[in-house]
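Tokens in:
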């Protein structure tokens, strides 16, 4: 049931949010890639997964403040779940809280095993927050990733052309 629910959420989200690799050149707002977030979300209890589903629906409706309420509750009860941190960071960005988003993106990247999407997401948030050294470090982690190659090239270009 949870997998079916997540699949529906993925389909809905794909209508609203592009994957990071499909972002328009120069579009630095990170995109949610729910497929990349699915595995850590499977570790949640059924009740927590239901809250994630609600949060994703709220994100799709651009009701970010309400989604933040659910995601904050979930990160308190699941502090090491990297996908919850990415979702919360995304919502914080949508609400204009770049510093808070950077904190959650760092926590997401530091938790669990290495995942290219978390590095990509953190690189984008670091760029938006003006933390170019962190952005460059995360770009290095993505060397050889075909999925994020175009986005990484664009981000490198943006880093070079932005004031130091």
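Residues out:
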């Amino acid at each position: 049931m949870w997998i079916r629910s997540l699949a529906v959420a993925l389909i809905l989200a794909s209508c609203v949010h592009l994957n990071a690799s499909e972002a328009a050149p120069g579009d630095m707002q990170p995109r949610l890639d729910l497929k990349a977030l699915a595995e850590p979300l499977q570790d949640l209890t059924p009740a927590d997964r239901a809250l994630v589903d609600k949060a994703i629906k709220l994100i799709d409706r651009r009701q970010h403040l309400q989604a933040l309420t659910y995601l904050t509750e979930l990160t308190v009860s699941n502090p090491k779940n990297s996908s919850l941190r990415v979702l919360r960071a995304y919502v914080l960005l949508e609400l204009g809280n770049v510093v808070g988003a950077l904190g959650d993106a760092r926590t997401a990247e530091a938790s669990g095993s290495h995942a290219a999407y978390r590095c990509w997401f953190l690189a984008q948030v670091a760029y938006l927050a003006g933390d170019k050294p962190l952005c460059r470090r995360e770009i290095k982690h993505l060397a050889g990733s075909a999925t994020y190659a175009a986005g990484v090239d664009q981000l490198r270009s943006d880093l070079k052309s932005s004031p130091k």
